[in-house]
């Protein structure tokens, strides 16, 4: 029995790519609705994923339906591409050579044929710039992510604006699903396929409010798989790091994990744009660590750290040299101050010596030498001392100062 889950990428809060008056979230819902309607016309059981669930809750919702790869169930999510190319592109789980790759190839082949669009090819999620795609990687049914046309290509824009062309595209996608299930499209009996029921009659019994959503959506009850055991036995999810990962966390838990890893690895707080980006990727902790460690920002941090390690000894040596130079400058400043003091004292002494002597009282006239003494007797040592010149006195005083 063919069973299909259809999901439209993005939400009104996170609308995806926007170009002029086109919004990815609105276009993916149009395509998803058209595909769902046509699949039901073919008698295929279809469930539509509640549109306003964010990525982690969307994956949880799908995994709780009981739809499994082992029971030939599939899930398809639609997105709109950008990058200036044209046509359709698809992403499959892991490295391919599995049912996911076949599903993507079947859809691309017949959708491009029906709508006369360019086939950009089916690619591994590991070749995506995000390195892994949570929708195809963590869902239990066989999964496919289909990028429908390019929102920034003028020809593709005209296609996306035309509802009749989108109907043709939906027909091609449905043909690809029919090819994957190997259903004879001419047959419509109950032994081949089961008529679908309206969404309101799907097997829901209770409602569940998911974190981060305003509305309350039906919680699917797991239908009994074809003797493959409990539909809730998910088992570990493969991840490229080789470690076992748990089921996707809630949006708030992922936000807290992203904040913590940014602080630990990059040493800073994550901005709102990066936070929403990584939350929408639905990465687990190991994948988040790898993304940050492989980022250009982390490479710059490592490079700067190595340069700092090389420059630190030179920096420390320069600090020591600066301290020594400061000590030398301080010592020379002290010597200059002492010399300036001596110069001031010298100038003061010179000024004192140049001043005329001040006579405080009248001295008695000198006595005439006795007539009995000759002229030779007049030049005694005392009179020689009194006749010392001014320059002799100056030199003697300077010698006293510098001695």
H/E series: EEEHEHEEHEHEHHEEHHHHHHH
What would you call the shape? rod-shaped
- Summed over residues and divided by their number, the pLDDT gives a mean of 78
Cα-atom radius of gyration: 48 Å
Low-confidence stretches are 186-247
- Order the strands across the largest sheet as they lie in space: 4-1-5-8-6-7
CATH-wise, what's the superfamily of the domain at 3-220?
A: Zn-dependent exopeptidases
Number of strands: 10
What's the CATH class of the domain at 3-220, please? Alpha Beta
Distance between the termini: 121 Å
CATH architecture of the domain at 3-220: 3-Layer(aba) Sandwich
Query: Mind summarizing the main beta sheet?
Result: 6 strands, mixed
SS summary, helix count: 13
Strand fraction: 5-15%
Would you tell me which CATH topology of the domain at 3-220 applies? Aminopeptidase
User: Roughly what percent helix?
Assistant: 40-55%
Structural class comes to alpha/beta
């Amino acid at each position: 029995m063919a069973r299909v889950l259809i999901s439209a990428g993005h939400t009104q809060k996170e609308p995806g790519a926007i170009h002029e008056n086109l919004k990815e979230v609105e276009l993916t819902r149009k395509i998803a609705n058209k595909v769902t309607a046509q699949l039901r016309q073919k008698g295929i059981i279809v469930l539509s994923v509640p549109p306003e669930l964010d990525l982690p809750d969307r994956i949880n919702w799908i995994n709780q339906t009981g739809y499994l790869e082992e029971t030939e169930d599939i899930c398809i999510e639609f997105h709109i591409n950008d990058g200036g190319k044209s046509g359709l592109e698809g992403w499959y789980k892991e490295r391919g050579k599995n049912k996911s790759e076949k599903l993507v190839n079947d859809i691309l082949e017949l959708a491009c044929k029906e709508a006369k669009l360019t086939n950009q090819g089916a690619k591994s999620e590991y070749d995506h710039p995000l390195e892994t795609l949570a929708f195809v990687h963590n869902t239990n049914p066989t999964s496919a992510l289909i990028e429908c046309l390019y929102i920034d290509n003028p020809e593709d824009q005209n296609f996306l604006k035309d509802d009749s062309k989108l109907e043709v595209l939906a027909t091609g996608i449905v043909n690809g699903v029919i090819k994957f299930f190997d259903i004879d499209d001419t047959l419509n009996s109950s032994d081949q396929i089961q008529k679908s029921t309206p969404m309101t009659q799907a097997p829901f019994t209770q409602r569940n409010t998911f974190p981060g959503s305003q509305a309350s959506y039906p919680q699917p009850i797991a239908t009994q798989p074809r003797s493959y055991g409990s539909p809730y036995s998910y088992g570990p999810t493969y991840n490229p790091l080789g470690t076992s990962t748990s089921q996707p966390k809630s949006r708030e838990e992922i936000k807290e994990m992203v904040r913590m890893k940014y602080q630990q690895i990059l040493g800073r707080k994550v901005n709102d744009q990066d936070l929403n980006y990584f939350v929408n990727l639905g990465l687990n902790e190991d994948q988040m660590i790898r993304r940050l460690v492989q980022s250009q920002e982390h490479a710059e941090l490592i490079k700067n750290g190595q340069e700092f390690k090389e420059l630190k000894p030179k920096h420390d040596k320069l600090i020591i040299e600066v301290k020594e130079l400061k000590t030398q400058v301080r010592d020379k400043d002290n010597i200059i101050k002492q010399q300036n003091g001596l110069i001031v004292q010298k100038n003061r002494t010179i000024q004192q010596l140049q001043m005329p002597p001040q006579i405080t009282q009248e001295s008695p006239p000198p006595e005439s030498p006795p007539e009995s003494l000759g002229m030779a007797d007049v030049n005694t040592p005392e009179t020689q001392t009194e006749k010392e010149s001014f320059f002799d006195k100056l030199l003697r005083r300077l010698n006293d100062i510098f001695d």
